[in-house]
Amino acid sequence: MDFDAVLLLSFGGPEAPDQVMPFLENVTRGRGIPAERLADVAEHYLHFGGVSPINGINRALIEQLRVQLPDLPVYFGNRNWAPYVEDTVTAMRDNGIRRAAVFTTSAWGGYSSCTQYVEDIARARAAAGDGAPELVKLRQYFDHPLLVEMFADAIAAAAATLPAELRDEARLIFTAHSVPPSLRQISRRQR
């Protein structure tokens, strides 16, 4: 496909203690989450200095993409925190970008990790207005052979660190954010 840029689209996260509550308010906007619950979640972020690692991880990934794709500009936009995707797509328009591949940082399917990014793309293009670049979201990659291989290699390396007598008893458990039951049902229907 013919692209003249890459957009890394992610969730976003606070980068200082004073950003935690505004970030959480963005994430939960329109959902009626009680202030007490937001304060509880804020404590989790503040326990780690009020900084989510996600933006730093994304900036490191962008630097790697720039090395691998030296002829394409790489842009960064978030759903819930700066740099906001609406501002990024407007800058892309102003820079003359016409068609960009959009890499979302969630490998998995589901509303928040797939469908909502499609909505984010539409909202950002609408915000940029006339001349907004075409944004082509790349496929989910949860089953891409390279991702599977990376997980398998990391699991094997971790298992190798266990004492020999525990290797047969060890169990591997995968976990993620808590997903509300209603969203699990939606995700199952979207497959």
The total strand number stands at 4
Output the number of helix runs. Answer: 8
Mean residue pLDDT: 91
Distance between the termini: 25 Å
Overall 3D shape: globular
* Helical content band: 40-55%
Would you give an account of this structure?
The protein has 191 residues and is of the alpha/beta class. The chain has a 4-stranded parallel sheet, with helices on both faces. It contains 8 helices and 4 strands; from the N terminus they run βαααβαβαβααα. It has helices at 20-28, 35-47, 54-68, 85-94, 111-128, 145-160, 164-167, 181-190; strands spanning 5-10, 74-78, 99-104, 134-137. α1 packs across α2 (35-47) and α4 crosses α5 (111-128).
What's the short story on this structure?
The chain is 50% helix and 11% strand.
Task: Describe this protein with a few key phrases.
191 residues, alpha/beta, four-stranded parallel beta sheet, 8 helices, 50% helix
Please write out the topology.
Layout: E1 5-10, H1 20-28, H2 35-47, H3 54-68, E2 74-78, H4 85-94, E3 99-104, H5 111-128, E4 134-137, H6 145-160, H7 164-167, H8 181-190
Parallel strand pairs: 1-2, 1-3, 3-4
